[in-house]
Amino acid sequence: MPELPEVETIRRALEPHLVGHRICSLAVWQPRLRYPVPPDLAGSVSGLHITALARRAKYLIFHLEGGTWLLVHLGMSGRLSLVEPGSGRTLHDHWEIRLSHQAVRLHDPRRFGFLLGGHGPPGLHPLLADLGPEPLEPDFGGPEWAQALRARAAPVKSLLIDGRLVAGVGNIYASEALFRAGINPRRPGRRIGTARALILGTAIRTVLEEALAEGGSTLRDYRHINGDPGGFRVHWQVYGRAGEACRACGETIRRIRIGQRSTFFCPCCQR
DNA sequence: ACTGGCTCCTGAGGGC
DNA sequence: TGCCCTCAGGAGCCAG
User: Fold this and answer.
1) Residue A231: its pLDDT value, please?
2) Which residue, A103, A129, A155, sits at the end of a domain?
């Protein structure tokens, strides 16, 4: 599953191949995704230059000339790869953006990903409009953020993956950040003191930065844009370790459900 | 305004 | 060996 560090890794890898190049065409073979690929999208982007490749939360934004943009999400199982335009397709290949000598192709078996387009400031799009601050920004997690966290009653784990308090934190990093901050995932936001909220902000940024530094090759389905599975493996402290010993205190890591999502924590280290 | 539950989808993995 | 069931996950949507 591509999470924020994986999406950022993909963005950085694609950027030099795409920016400054012209889209020759957009080929769509299987438009059925979370949102169907708009039928008129191919016509509206053909011939335009890619001026920038940006990321917001787990969304990739292809900025095109004249204020047009493409919004890409990889969902659960989406993979982007650089291929020869029109080269052999496999099951679950959905579309490719063709430049003169290569193409970016989406492969997505579970079809939670999507490709949409628009014009003007992409941040005004409903999918992006309510997103919270970027956790990798240097000013993330200050007193204002702590206050926003403390204004909510939901379990802190739910708040972290909600997207409005912090953008792009998924299920895995939420558990890991809470372990680092020593906070029980079920604790209501409003019952976290300001000092601990600030620690949590730092923990979120730190865990994401470390994953990014490893090239983001942390998860089962993840592939680099050339198809390599990646050689690294992040050393998770709690995620997926139910029944195993906490590396800090030896207590057994537990798995619970919060908001229909698996959540892992150490009942001794996290209060 | 918040919160929590449900939903989309396919493949992997466990149990029998 | 093979079938069936459960689970995994992002994030929109909706009901309470």
Assistant:
1) 44
2) A129
Q: Does residue A27 form part of some domain?
A: yes
The residue to which tokens 């906490």 are assigned = A246
- Rounded mean pLDDT, A23-34: 93
Q: Answer yes or no: A261 catalytic.
A: yes
Summarised one tens digit per residue, pLDDT across range A252-261 is 999 998 988 8
User: Nearest nucleotide to A261 by CA–C1' distance?
Assistant: C9
Cα gap A166→A162, rounded to integer Å: 8
Please indicate, yes or no, whether residues A92 and A156 belong to a single structural domain of this protein.
no
Last residue of a domain, one of A129, A159, A180: A129
Range of the domain at A217: 143-265
CA angle A131, A132, A136 (to 5 degrees): 115
Mean pLDDT for A200-219 is: 83
Q: Which H, E and C letters describe A16-65, residue by residue?
A: HHHCCCECCEEEECCCCCCCCCCCCHHHHHCCCEEEEEEEECCEEEEEEH
Q: How many Å from the CA of A39 to C1' of C9? A: 28
Distance of CA A54 to the CA centre of its chain: 13
